[in-house]
Amino acid sequence: MEKIRLSKLMSEQGLCSRREADSYIERGWVLVDGVPITELGTRILPTQTITLAPAAQNRQEGRVTVLLNKPIGFVSGQPEKNYRPAITLVSAETRYSADRSPLRFSPQHLRGLAPAGRLDIDSTGLLVLTQDGRIAKQLIGENSRVEKEYLVRVTGQLNKDGLARLNHGLSLDGEALRPAEVSWQNKDQLRFVLRQGKKRQIRRMCEMVGLSVVGLKRVRIGRVMLGDLPLGQWRYLREDESFG
What we know:
This protein is of the alpha+beta class. Strands 6, 7, 8, 9, 12, 13, 14, 15 and 16 form a nine-stranded mixed sheet that branches.
């Protein structure tokens, strides 16, 4: 059996991100079969048992995840062409008044807070920002299968077999898309459920079957719903909520 880099194995097992794993290893917070490992690049057998020291567990428990209803005109990540990043909407003043989380907002919660997935500048709806590498990996990792649901307003004339092709049969960037769930909600709105997230995927899919997107809103990621969260406001992910 081939040995695997410890940090890679920790990421695959969902213990943390690879970057976090290296940080924990340097601090002596990772144990393999009960023995602390401090050397970066250490390789172990997949059958060996990895545990995190209490210090690492405490650090993970203190990390927050924020759910934001992103308006049009804000970018998900780094500033682009003078557009503001979505994280600038996260403040004490913009917190949803009906947020049931017991957490009190702290500027510390903005440190390392990063989007777990994109939402285009001209799209609205549920955007996840997190300090937790485990959640980021769950939502945007290579093997992520977490569903993302969108309501999409369209114009144009759907091509013959267009709806079937939206569900399965289209390719982007030279790669066949995973099967989707696409259905009409009313005469000008489609519901999309995707299990991947290529750049501007829905808009490009619609263009390929004769439709133009005039409005796009993400309403669900996994088991977490946007619900009645007002546009431009945010709340904390609660302990009783999970995406998977």
